[in-house]
Amino acid sequence: MKYGFIGVGNMAQAIIQGLLKAQTVSSTDINVHSFHQAHADQVAQKMHLTAQASNEAVILASDVVFLAVPANQILDLLTHERKPLTESMPIVVSMAAGVSLTEMSAILPGLAIVRIMPNVNVALNQGFTAVVGNDQAASHATQQMLAVFQQLGTALEMPEADFTTVSALAGSSPAFAYIFIDALARAGVEAGLSKPVADQIAAQAVQGSAAAVLAGQKSPWDLVDQVCSPGGTTVAGVLALQENGFATAAIKAVEATIQKDQSNQS
Q1: 89: annotated binding-site residue?
Q2: Which letter does DSSP use for residue 17 in this model?
Q3: Per residue in 33-49, pLDDT tens?
């Protein structure tokens, strides 16, 4: 299977890195083009991809075409490239927030169109991706894309109505997690550790804690209780987090992300 990317921004590069890391495709079977062609050429050279001279060339050379352009350009792009898309009939995959399957299908009736909502951790095959397809994708394309992204982490078929929440909870949350890791590490630096060592300790602690949650035997709060000894140091730290609004701040961050996504759609 050959993949095409129209646009090679951060998320497109993360997906490409994940595909190559999972060894699901040869690098030369990934076609790329961008409005900023010099940038696309640099990415292609760096990752040994096939740079194409136009969007149409990407479409005609690919079985799956990823639309990795800003959301406000998606519908114009589909309109402009309608002819090659309807001639070659690839699976069209959009990662744009706020552009619905209904809007895209109105331009390309009869084509299998899939929406995905990944996060950048797909680059490490540790991502989360929500997947949903239109009626034409239901028989095969949605399952194909689920299989692809299950090799890049966790992938679930989810209702399109949930994509705004998924965007906040999965797409934006890595940034929140990085802030938490950095804050833990800076506290370690304040106490005398070097920043690289503190970063490593904090990141490993978060990674291990996430693995414990994903094991599914206990809820996150049960795991908190498991770490907290009566009258111990950890419970003192947990109380300090609560007193300073840690949980509220995390909830507000997700809510703000959802509200911003909704305002972009209006």
Answers
A1: no
A2: H
A3: 998 889 999 999 999 99
Angle, vertex CA 187, rays to CA 184 and CA 192, nearest 5: 130
**CATH classification of the domain holding 243:** 1.10.3730.10
Contact 181, 206 (CB under 8 A): yes
Q: Are residues 118 and 7 in the same domain?
A: yes
Q: Are 29 and 16 in contact (CB under 8 A)?
A: no
On whether both 7 and 124 belong to a single domain, the answer is yes
- pLDDT at position 54, please? 95
The arithmetic mean of pLDDT across residues 180-188, rounded, is: 97
The verdict on whether residue 194 carries a ligand-binding annotation is no
User: pLDDT (tens digit, 9 = 90+) per residue, 136-164?
Assistant: 998 799 999 999 999 999 999 999 999 99
Per the model's pLDDT, the better-predicted residue between 198 and 169 turns out to be: 198
Q: Are 176 and 42 in contact (CB under 8 A)?
A: no
131 lies in the same domain as 178 = no
64-67 and 3-6 beta bridge pairing: parallel
Strands of the 127-133 sheet, one edge to the other = 50-51, 30-33, 3-6, 64-67, 91-94, 113-118, 127-133, 153-157
Q: Are residues 29 and 110 in the same domain?
A: yes
Q: Out of 141, 158, 175, pick the residue that ends a domain.
A: 158
| Residue 34 is labelled as binding a ligand | yes
Q: Is 244 annotated for ligand binding?
A: no
* Overall domain count for the chain: 2
What domain range includes position 57?
Answer: 3-158
Which of 109, 137, 158 is a domain's end point? 158
